[in-house]
Every structure is written in C-alpha cells, then in structure tokens.
C-alpha cells in the first residue's frame, strides 16, 4: 500500500463572470496530476517558480481542496474531509516551511513552539511535554538550553532546526519540505540534508522535498518528479536525473544550474 497517493489531481484558480462581476482568468496551478509515495521514500519535486509545486504540497496536506481528483493516505481518500476529520491524520502529515521564522509566533519560546502540537493533541501533562521537547531538540542537534530562547535569538540554521523539530514532535510518517534550506549557505544546506537523513533512519520518515537545487535532490532523493505547468513531465531516480534526463524541460533545468569553476564556465559559454 502506498503511504500517499494523488489521483487525477487538479486545482484551478479564478472565477467565471456573473452579473456585473468580471471574470477572472482561470489558471490551472495543478493539472490532472498523479503521483505515488511509498513508505520511507524520499521524493524530490523540482521545477521553475510557478510550476505548481507549493500548490501541490498544500493539496497533499489537505490545506486546500482540489478542483477535481483525489488524495489518499494509506488507501483512505481524505479529499472531502472537514477540518475536524483531518485531525485523524494531521499528526501523520507535517511540513517544514521555507521561512521558518515567519511561521513561528514571535511571542513563543522554543519550548512553546515545539510543544504547541503536543498540547493540541493532548499529549501528557506539562512535564511530559517538556521532556518530549527536550528529546526532540536533541534529535535535531540542539541542547536543552535552547528551549527558553525566542525565535529572533536564533541563527538561520537554528531556526530551520526548530522548524524541523516542530514537524517531528508528533512523530509523523511524512514530512513535506517546501524549499526549506534555500536561504542557507551550501555548508548549512549539507548539514540540514544530512540531519533529515538521520531523522529518516531514526523515526522511519518519508519526505517530499520541494527544491530548485538539483544537486540536493540527486544526493538526497530516491526518486525525482519534474513539474511543468502543473503537470509531472518526467520522473527519474535521484542519481539518474542529471545523466538520464529525457524531457526537454528537464534538460533546460539542468542546463540552468550555475557552473562554479570559471574554466568550465568558459567552456560552456563557447558551446
């Protein structure tokens, strides 16, 4: 059985004109898309800005309803579930945002940020939740003393670690990472992807990893889906993407990756 499955999924924005209300242009952000994710699998999702990656993530998390199609979690269709019904599986499907700082309540300490989902799901008393927060901080490589800090007192890398800690606090089965490390330098990006791999091994996680960084997906992802105009136009293994790309759009994405060695860059320019 698949952990998560999308079948013929579409999301159209805009509206038809009625009376004196002008029509808005109807745009299909996701267009009859289907995908499957196995338990413990890392699926990369790549494509240019506006290709529909983030909209797809919201549909898969049940944060938006599709215009058509279905989303299934472990074979159960939750497409039409209400917010209260979604609580049955919300703890199993979590997200790490691109800008963790913007997703934090600035008035909350780290303990409150990580402990909030535990409190929402009625997990133990204050002491039990504090112990889980400390344990979760240790999992993401931070000491217990960080519990009492506020978001603005953390570095960018520490903020992303707190975002990951909040996502794993309820011990989910799937985490969707939406451009989580795009604001970090290359060294920190490597540290964060290594951390995700360690957490996968310890907690049995699966990931959907949305990114523009093709070098990351080639190292981190078991499988990569390439999105263009709301559709998946190609799928490859993570290690095979850079060498075995078939679709012209995928080849253009690969060609757009900056060449860091100036000598190689000159060679590419002459071609």
From TrEMBL:
Q: Would the keyword Magnesium turn up in this protein's UniProt record?
A: no
The UniProt entry, under CDD domains, shows: ABC_NikE_OppD_transporters
Start and end residues of each ABC transporter domain: 4-254
Cited Pfam families: ABC_tran
Keyword Hydrolase tagged:
no
A Gene Ontology biological process term: transmembrane transport
Q: Which UniProt keywords apply?
A: ATP-binding, Nucleotide-binding, Transport
InterPro entries with a match to the protein in the record: AAA+_ATPase (IPR003593), ABC_transp_ATP-bind (IPR050319), ABC_transporter-like_ATP-bd (IPR003439), ABC_transporter-like_CS (IPR017871), P-loop_NTPase (IPR027417)
Gene Ontology molecular function, alphabetical: ATP binding; ATP hydrolysis activity
Question: Which PANTHER family does UniProt cross-reference here?
Answer: D,D-DIPEPTIDE TRANSPORT ATP-BINDING PROTEIN DDPF-RELATED, TRANSPORT ATP-BINDING PROTEIN
Family per record? Belongs to the ABC transporter superfamily.
- Write down what this protein is called: Peptide ABC transporter ATPase
Q: Which organism is it from?
A: Paenibacillus graminis
**Species lineage, top-down?**
Bacteria, Bacillati, Bacillota, Bacilli, Bacillales
């Amino acid at each position: 059985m698949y952990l998560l499955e999308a079948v013929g999924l579409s999301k159209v924005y805009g509206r038809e004109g009625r009376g004196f209300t002008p029509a808005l242009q109807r745009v299909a952000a996701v267009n009859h898309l289907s995908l499957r994710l196995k338990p413990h699998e890392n699926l990369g999702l790549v494509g240019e800005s506006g290709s529909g990656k983030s909209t797809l993530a919201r549909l898969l998390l049940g944060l938006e309803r599709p215009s058509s199609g279905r989303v299934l979690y472990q074979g159960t269709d939750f497409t039409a579930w209400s917010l209260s019904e979604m609580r049955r599986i919300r703890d199993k499907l979590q997200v790490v945002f691109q800008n963790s700082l913007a997703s934090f309540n600035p008035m909350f300490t780290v303990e409150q940020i990580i402990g909030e989902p535990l409190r929402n799901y009625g997990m133990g008393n204050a002491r039990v939740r504090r112990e889980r927060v400390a344990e979760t901080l240790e999992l993401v490589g931070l000491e217990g003393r960080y519990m009492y800090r506020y978001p603005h007192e953390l570095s960018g890398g520490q903020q992303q670690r707190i975002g990951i800690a909040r996502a794993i606090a309820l011990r989910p089965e799937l985490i969707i990472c939406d451009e989580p490390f795009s604001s970090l330098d290359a060294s920190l990006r490597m540290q964060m992807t290594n951390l995700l791999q360690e957490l996968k091994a310890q907690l049995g996680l699966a990931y959907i990893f949305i990114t523009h960084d093709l070098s990351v997906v080639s190292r981190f992802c078991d499988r990569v889906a390439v999105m263009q105009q709301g559709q998946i136009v190609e799928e490859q293994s993570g290690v095979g993407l850079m060498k075995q790309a078939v679709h012209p759009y995928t080849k253009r994405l690969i060609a757009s990756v900056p060449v860091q060695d100036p000598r190689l860059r000159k060679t590419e320019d002459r071609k």
